[in-house]
Every structure is written in structure tokens, then in C-alpha cells.
Amino acid sequence: MIEISHLTKKYGEHVAVDDLTLNIEPGKIYGFLGPNGAGKSTTMNMITGYIAATQGTVKVQGYDILKQPEQARKCIGYLPEMPPLYMDMTVWEYLRFAADLKKIPRDKKRRYTEEAMELAKITDMKNRLIRNLSKGYRQRTGLAQAVLGYPGVIILDEPTVGLDPRQMIEMRELIQSLGKQHTVILSSHILTEVKEICEYIFILSNGRLAASDTTQNLTARTSAGQEIWLLLKGSRQEIMAALKKADGRTAHGRTEDGRNEDKNHEDINGGSVQPDAFEIASIEHAEEDGCFRAVLKSSGKQGSRGAERQQDIREQVFYTFAKAGIPILEMTMGSKSLEQVFLELTTQAGGSVIEEHTEEEHIAGEDTAEEQTAREKVVKEHTAEKNMLKENTAAEENEQDIKSEIYNSQERDIHEGNLEKGI
User: Over its length of 423 residues, how does the chain's per-residue pLDDT go in tens digits?
Assistant: First the structure.
């Protein structure tokens, strides 16, 4: 669907996107995660052809966005962070105007426009001026423009910014419904939003790809070892004694007198499993009488065949406490949250890359102090420009509201004068 190869964007000495390579397959909802200034919006602008890349290529359904822009853009629907709306148009007029820009055939314009409004749930607002719409309905109008004409790819840049909680929920449900018929690329720094909506996540840091995988796999890959939360029925002394007795066996696969107790212990791939040592991270009184809550951690060792997975120690934990006569009332697998994964990946020096770059490439790409200063200067200037744009937009809207109020007041005066005259 979309092929991005060695994509780079530079603003003078500042590298906004650094050698980005990734493939986006059809029929999924993808999330672009990253802190402010990570390169999310810049990447999306290059995918849509809004800005040109310094190096690299972007192909949408086989069309190069720079060499075949018209064919490539027909495959894309784009909703930028600030929707490009015309405040003096009605919703219907704006979408018909967008249909003309997209060169939708004349015999399909009306049907496509009505279907886009129905999908975005703004049909009841079609005759209202856009300036009189709430923030949520303006976002919906921008989204209707993006899906107009049924493009294969829908790109949404921070679609829920500025919305109240109810509007955010409605927008998320709408995006999920789009994923049934389109490939959706969603940019956001709201982690809960990405976790709820997206099937696959790209994490960007300092313009580079820090990680790409499903939420579950990202969490598993960044976990050093397995963590298990237990509710045990017994005294603290009994629990600690059982763990101490088991430590000689589980650490090396042998009992304290040297006998092997795990002769037939094999993994699913047929290789022998080296039992993980596990240690108690914490233990405290539970709400239930005579019970304790404990957290056990494994060393995260791999099997003898070097399988790239952390070993499951739940069976070992079960037999350890069963042999000691200590009932396990609850056993829960612990895992890192997406927030923890995000912070871990984006706070590593220079945004350490898990898949796409080697350690040597990463070290070679670290910023000098001068480059870092230049980066901060560009980010500050960009932020100032955005703030100025927002202030100008707010001033224009305020001016329109004042004009509208004056116009309505004049209409009322004329109407009252006509009543007095008996007209």
C-alpha cells in the first residue's frame, strides 16, 4: 500500500526525519507515536506530497508521490492537525468544493458527498455555516473531506486535539469504523488513544524509527524478564522457605544434592529448557486473612536453542508452591504498559533503534552540541509560528462572530421597524 524508503527531511542543519524506512500494508489502523518534534507531522506531510523529501522515496499503491503526484494523491485522504476549512461556506458547499478539487466524476459527486456526510455524522449540519459549528463538528467536516471519494489510505494528524472527552470518544469510534474499509494512519502523542484504536504502532524519536510492532509485541520485547503477581495462602516464613528451597533447583535445574529433577522438561520447539531462576521482588499482607501478595521476577533466560522469547516460569512457580503445600489463589502475568515502553524507547540516547538501525549507525548519527542547539532553535521557531497562526485564526473567528452579531442585530431592527409600520 505505502512504501517508504530511506526518507530524510532536512531544514538547514536540522534533520527532522532521518533515513526512515517502513512499509504500510492495506486494511490496518497504524499509529505514529512520538514526543513533540519527533517527526510525525513531517513524515505525514511527505507521504501526502505536501512537502518534498530531501532524500528517499514514498510510493502509494505503486505511484511515486513526487514523480506521479496526481495518481498518488487520489489514493490518499488527509486530515491535518488544523483542518483546512472555509468558514464562510456551509458544510455542503465545502464538501462539493472538495469534490471538485479531487476531480470526482460529476455523476458521482452528490452521492459521494452525501455518503461522506453520513459517515462523519454531519448530515444534519449540511446547511450550516462552518464558522457556526463546534470544534467537534469542524473536525468531523474535515474528516468527511478526507474520506470523500473513498481513497484507499486515510491519514489523520492529531484528530482529537482540542476535543472534549465526549467528542474524543465519538471521534475514536468513527476512526475505528473507517478501519473496516480503509488503511488508516493516525498520528498522536496520546498513548491511550493509540492503544485503543491502532493495530500496529510506529514509535519515532528524533526523526528516526525507534520501534515498530503490535502493542503486545512491543511490550514483550522491551521486558527484561517475566513478572508474576501471586496471591498465596500461608505465612511469610513458609513462602520464603519454599522459595529458598526452590532456588537451588530452579537456578541450575538441579536439587541441592546435585540430582537433575527436570529430565523431561522440553520447550514447544523440541529443545531442552534451562529453568529460569526466579526471585521475589516484593511480598506484603493481602486483604484476605492468612494471605500474602507476592511479585516474582525471572531472569529472562532463553531456551537452549536461543529462542527469541522470554521463558514462561508459571509452571515452575506452581510446582514450587504445590510441593511446599502453599495454595496459589491467584496468578497473574505482569507486563509493561505502553506508557512505560514509550518512555523507555524515547528517552534512550538519540532514540535507540530496535529494528531498523545497527548500534554503530546509531552512534554515528548522534547529535553534536551545535546540532542540538540548532534543533532546539528550529523547534522554537516552528512552535512560535503555530501559536501565531492559532492566534490569527482565533482573531478571525472572533471578528466573524462580531460581524454576525451586528448583522443579526440589524435584521432584528429592520424586522421590528416593519412591524411598527404594519408591513
Answer: 899 999 999 999 899 999 999 999 888 899 988 888 888 889 999 999 889 999 999 999 999 998 999 899 999 999 988 888 999 999 999 999 999 999 999 999 999 999 999 988 899 999 999 999 998 899 999 999 999 999 999 999 888 887 888 888 888 888 888 888 889 999 887 777 888 888 899 988 888 988 888 877 776 665 556 778 899 999 999 998 888 876 544 433 334 443 444 443 443 334 333 444 577 788 899 988 899 999 887 765 444 443 444 567 788 889 889 999 999 999 987 766 666 677 767 766 344 443 333 333 333 334 445 545 554 554 455 555 556 555 555 555 565 555 555 555 555 555 555 555 555
Nearest to 112 by CA among 149, 154, 151, 73: 149
278-285 vs 63-64, strand pairing mode: unpaired
Give how far Cα 24 sits from Cα of 60, 66, 149, 213, 336, Å.
10, 18, 21, 12, 26
CA separation for the pair 260, 220 (Å, rounded) = 30
Q: Cell numbers of 175, please?
A: 476512526
Q: Is the pTM higher than 0.85?
A: no
In Å, what is the CA distance from 7 to each residue of 42, 55, 218, 248?
11, 6, 23, 53
Alpha helices, DSSP H only, in 159-313?
165-178, 191-197, 215-221, 236-250
Where helices occur in 160-292 by DSSP H, the ranges are: 165-178, 191-197, 215-221, 236-250
Amino acid identity, position 412: R
User: Of 279, 278, 283, whose CA–CA distance to 313 is shortest?
Assistant: 278
Three cell numbers written together for 219: 511490550
Residues 171, 185: contact at Cβ < 8 Å?
no
Query: 3-state class of 286 per DSSP?
Result: coil
